[in-house]
Amino acid sequence: MTHVPGKARGRRFAVLAAVLAVLATACTGGDLAKDLQGGYQTLPKESGKPEAGGTVTVALTPGLSPNYIYPYPPASANGSVIARGLLWRSLYRPSGEGDQIADAALSLAETPRYSTDRKTVSIRMKHYSWSNGRPVTADDVVFSLALLKAALKESPANWSFYTPGQFPDGITAKATAPDELTLTSTTAYNPSYLMSMLTLLYVMPSKEWNIARTSGPHLDYTRPKNARAIYAYLTKQSESQATFADNPLWQVVNGPYRLKGFDPTTGSYSLVPNTSYSGPGGSRLDRVDFKSFTSAPAVLNQFKAGNLTVGTLDSSFIMQISALKKKGYHVYGAPAPARFDPL
User: Fold this and answer.
1) Residue 78: per-residue pLDDT
2) pLDDT band at residue 285 under the 50/70/90 scheme
3) Rounded to an integer, what distance in angstroms lies between the CA atom of residue 83 and that of residue 25?
4) 187 or 40, which is more confident?
């Protein structure tokens, strides 16, 4: 659901599903069912000319407020992560279209090149930067893979996409040049499978995060013992919610936003532009506020008050759609699975 008061500001935000189209078809008729069928194909056309600046307010799903900031939270955290796709980008950007797994134009690296036996993969990094101006390098990918392995060494449950014996098992990563990454594998992975895994590999800053204590020495993260110590430190730091917005660790990002503020009591948080962002899809918004809610009725009340820009309307409030559309909201159903991966 979106609410665009007056002239549209900034780029269009990803719109969350108001209700499942199938539910609308089964329970209603007429214009409502027609509006909700077809998912994204029925998005309204933009009105006015987008302008830079402005603030949008996004309703978080009730009960799913974030309580972690490190991109790979341990299973014991039992929660969710702050907009990691906006703060830290994955190596490859999922395309979300047909059989195309990744969108090369929107990714941190060029399309992989495979050896004849598919056990060696060469990846060239694009020229993107961290928020402190340092280039995003192949070493950062090596670091990220080392920390993912450290997380899995602690517990296979620490990454929900992991299947024992598959990625990243048997994978060795090496930076053969600042912008050249080589992956060698004991298994000839199907390229489609490997690419799908690389869209889930968030790239983290190797030179700023390779420590095991605050102001401690920088460690060789290619040694598994050191990688586990670094992982333990970062996950411990991520438990301190009151310091999310102040901890210099979390200000080193490669995505279009950085964290401005976090409320540890409610889980609400705010993002502002990463002014050093060099990748595609940078935001023209001044601020994005993610607002936490304890219940679906509370979200509905804020929609009625006109205080939200984007959010999910619980299906139990389907009969409220007509009234909300009169207030200026666009409401539509999304196809399943409704996955959203911000740039």
Assistant:
1) 81
2) confident
3) 32
4) 187
> Is the Cβ–Cβ distance between 301 and 294 less than 8 Å?
no
For 333, other C-beta atoms within 10 Å of its C-beta total 24
- SS3 per residue for 154-195: HCHHHCCCCCCCCCCCCEEEEEEECCEEEEEECCCCCHHHHH
Q: What share of the chain is helix, strand, coil (3-state, %, to 5)?
A: 30, 20, 50
17-31, 149-163, 205-219, range with the lowest pLDDT:
17-31
Query: What single string gives the DSSP state of each residue in 97-163?
Result: ETTEEE-GGGSSBPPPEE-TTS-EEEEEBPS-B-TTSPBP-HHHHHHHHHHHHHHHHH-GGGSTT--
> What pLDDT, on a 0 to 100 scale, did the predictor assign at position 19?
33
Which helix (H) or strand (E) is 288 found in, with range?
Answer: strand 287-291
Q: What is the pLDDT of residues 192-221, one digit of tens each?
A: 999 999 999 999 999 999 999 999 999 999
Identify the CATH number of the domain defined by range 88-237: 3.90.76.10
Return the domain boundaries, the chain: 1-51+297-343, 88-237
Please name the helix (run of DSSP H) or strand (run of DSSP E) that holds residue 273, with its range, or none.
strand 269-273
- Runs of H (alpha helix) within the chain: 21-27, 30-36, 84-87, 138-154, 191-198, 206-209, 224-237, 296-304, 321-326
